Amino acid sequence: MPCKLLNLCEYETHKLVRIQSVRLGSLKWTFNGVILMFICIMMLWNKEYQEHDYVVSSVTAKVKGVALTSLPDVGDIVWDVVDYSGPSQGKNSFFVVTNVIVTKKQRQGKCPEVPPYGKVCRTDEDCVKGFWDQHSHGVQTGACVKFDVTRKTCEVSAWCPIESKKKPPKPALLASAENFTVLIKNNIRFPNFNFMRRNILPEMTESYLKRCQFNRHTDSSCPIFRLGDIVKEAKENFSEMAVEGGVIGIQIKWDCNLDGFLRNCLPKYSFRRLDEKESNRTLYPGLSFRFARYQTEKGVEERTLFKAFGIRFDVMVFGEAGKFSIIQLIIFIGSTLSYYTLTTVFIDWLIGTSCYSKEARQNYSEKKVESVQDRKQCILCVSFVDENHIRVVKKSHKKSLQQVKPISVHPCKDDTGHLSAMVGVLQKGNNIIDKPSQVLPRPNRPAWCLCGCCLPSTHPQEQLCCRQSIGRCITTSTLFEQLVLSRPLLEAVLLYREPLSDLTEGEQRIAALRNCSYRQYISWRIGAPPRESIPVMPSCSVWRIREEYPSQEGELLSQQAVTPLYLFNHSHC
């Protein structure tokens, strides 16, 4: 279609086909009802009518508890929050010491390196002065000294005596840390809604916080947690975990609904272990670090080295808030309207299956689908006297039209012109008895001709007979004479179409009768052709009509004039 400014003011819409069927109508509304129910359930369940925002939060933790341990060669040590909290673990984390290895009275000096970190030697030549690596406790002096009764190692300058214990004691020395408590303060904000809240709820009083403790069943909102309960909620054993340490995740989830009377915004706590707990599955199990306490003894600085094992608690906050938004509701409704096409797809598929007869399926397909052929392709329709249907074929420039395979088959549809011609014949009282006419076979019958009355042609689209099998030619039928060649009938049809036309003798009259005869044949044998197809007459019928209504010179039309085989819309081919 050419591009014009007026095209901008045009409106296009879809063409609908309405099928009067109680069964299909009931099926359609049933499917639509199921789809509507599904859409409503999903909208309410997932709150698709809400606008959402993600949480922004900050976390602080305050641990309380005191433990008393009795260490060999050290004595009793009281551990308070300063001692067992260890160094800062970063954002949203805190650490609690649960076990220690103590190496006391270390001083700067020279001592043998501890295997396997130290090199086992025999003489001083096996040691390199000034050598060290990432596993060394000090710098080698170049001397090979006695480590025990059986081995010698390279001497190092280090804090002596060097830490020699590898495995932490069992049970853990600070197993009583199980009863320590931690207050977790979590402040959250949803920026899009300008909504703020914290896990210490407004209704919580000071007296309540002094006596409450988190319990999944009896008090799930209390922000004060017993460490043993946290580890238990993570499905771990505190006594076992305290030996080598580990990492526990404390998850706080905020799932908030900010809609009016449905407003609800409370934290939900969950716990899980984050590190690998099986020692035999990892090279470095648990979690540990070292720290020292320094003192001066008789003017010499010395220290007590502690290798501390403990549990690190990582607080992770997740959250999402939703609030009603008319824009989100419209977007959701618009996105779900496409679900209703499933009803059309299913019913169209149902009609195309064996649930319906072949005639009903074809009739529905013709009403629903309107085929538009490419102008470069020419779609023809042909009819054979020994078949009761019409073939639709593609025009071929190489293959005889008689031999082209059909792309579809359609039943014959009566044409009003044909019916009016039949009425005219009956009114005149003609005796319609099929008596063979005296039409002699052609002596130069081509190979594609099966009736014996066709003439040869060099054009493949003109090589068409009236039959698909050998037999009588349609031009020998009495009806052919009465309906196609009868001059009184053709004149009556011409006057019916153009009441004021002049039918005086002459070339114009012969041409009009000839064209009317073509139309009568098409109406008789093909009727209303399928959409976008061009009816084609067989060669025998065309030449029989031209013999009856020749040109003014009295001669038959030349072979090059066979192009009127295509009676309608020939210009498209």
UniProtKB/TrEMBL annotation:
It is found in: Cell membrane; Membrane. Its main location: membrane. Residues 381-555 form the P2X purinoreceptor 7 intracellular domain. The keyword Transcription does not apply. This is P2X purinoceptor. The keyword Protein biosynthesis does not apply. GO terms for molecular function: ATP binding; extracellularly ATP-gated monoatomic cation channel activity; purinergic nucleotide receptor activity. It comes from the Eukaryota. It comes from Oncorhynchus kisutch (Coho salmon).
